[in-house]
Write a structure and sequence with these properties.
binds fe (ii) ion; 3-stranded antiparallel sheet; globular
Length: about 350
């Protein structure tokens, strides 16, 4: 599966072809089952985002190389680092996609794989319980070290396997990751200290088997309508109602009269989760839309963002578009903006409405 594909966002004419766009969080970080928002967001923004930024920087450098005249040590170094960063990006996207509840419901911890995957686990491991025992034991055996444990589909072997990976670029040739479990210390230390085994158990209690099952169907070539499982909850379905963080950065760098107006929407209960905002944005309460909507210019596009790009920005964009505004929701919200290294300013709530 192309890592860009599940959101069906077509390549933008505004971003260089070597730029890989950030993938939004699908999990709701504030409502997980024993994994803190601080841990998950730090991991996403700094480690996943770091790998993505590194990959894009390497790709840009590679695109500018005069290959026949570049020293071999530079070629070797760049291509090695490209492979490591690219594999880290893909495995982190798999990891984060594999976690989370459904819509507004937190992970139950009792969910089971969908039928096709359940049957495959039965066929290849003797059942879910036996697979889980092997997978979690492998992960706990990496405690104090680092690496990944990966449930992967091997076309050559015709079966699912549990694979150990010493680092990001260590994968069984030709196998497709279905579920990747991050065993680097950065994945758990903030919440669990050195108790890696407790972290593994919590990850297993947060799995989103619907999305893992969709990945399995895609891997075996039976996926038909799987994209819908990878759209953030509440985000606009129509592509023209969304904008990627990379597209927004490019649009904000332009100084023409089509520079977007930025709206920062936040539910009152979520204000304590916020410390910063995009420069030039004005902050509003979604529930007070009728009081601020008429101030929006109609001759410029409006970009609406919230924390992670779920229903807060999605619902507002739908309402604005119904009123004829050229409004788009920022995919992944300010969290994705952080992950691409976008700059912010301290939060300014002076324009925020009191909502009863
Ligand atoms: Fe990680």
């Amino acid at each position: 599966m192309d890592v860009q594909k599940p959101l069906s966002i077509s390549p933008s004419q505004f971003t260089p072809p070597e730029t890989l766009r950030v993938r939004p969080l699908l999990l709701k970080p504030q409502w997980m089952n024993g994994l803190s928002e601080r841990l998950l967001v730090s991991h996403y923004e700094n480690n996943y985002g770091g790998a993505l930024r590194r990959l894009n920087a390497i790709r840009a450098r590679l695109a500018s190389l005069d290959w026949p005249h570049t020293p071999v040590f530079e070629i070797n170094g760049l291509k090695r680092e490209e492979l490591i960063a690219a594999s880290s990006v893909i495995l982190h996207e798999n990891y984060f996609d594999s976690l989370g509840g459904h819509g507004d419901n937190p992970p139950s911890g009792t969910e089971e794989p969908p039928l096709e995957l359940s049957q495959a686990l039965e066929r290849d491991f003797g059942g879910l319980k036996a697979w889980r025992a092997e997978f979690t034991s492998m992960a706990k055996a990496l405690a104090g070290g680092s690496g990944w444990v990966i449930l992967a589909w091997s076309e050559r072997f015709g079966r699912l396997i549990n694979q150990w990976a010493a680092d990001h670029a260590h994968n069984l040739t030709g196998a497709t990751p279905i579920l990747a479990l991050d065993m680097y210390e950065h994945a758990y230390h903030l919440d669990f200290g050195a108790k890696a085994a407790a972290y593994v158990d919590k990850v297993m209690a947060n799995l989103n088997w619907e999305r893992i099952g969709a990945r399995y169907r895609l891997a075996i070539g039976e996926g038909a309508d799987e994209d819908k499982f990878f759209l953030p909850y509440g985000a606009p379905v129509k592509e023209e109602a969304r904008i990627s963080a990379e597209e927004l950065r490019t649009a904000l760098e332009s100084n023409d009269n089509r520079r977007p107006v930025l709206l920062d929407l936040c539910l009152p209960r979520d204000l304590p989760r916020r410390i910063d905002m995009l420069a030039g944005a004005s902050m509003h309460a979604p529930g007070a839309l009728s009081s601020w909507v008429e101030e929006l210019p109609r001759d410029r596009p409006t970009v609406v963002y919230c924390i992670c790009g779920f229903q807060v920005s999605g619902t507002a964009v739908t309402k604005l578009r119904e009123r004829g505004y050229d409004a788009r929701a920022l995919v992944g919200g300010i969290t994705a903006w952080h992950a691409i290294g976008g700059t912010t300013v301290p939060l300014d709530t002076s324009t925020y409405e009191e909502v009863p």
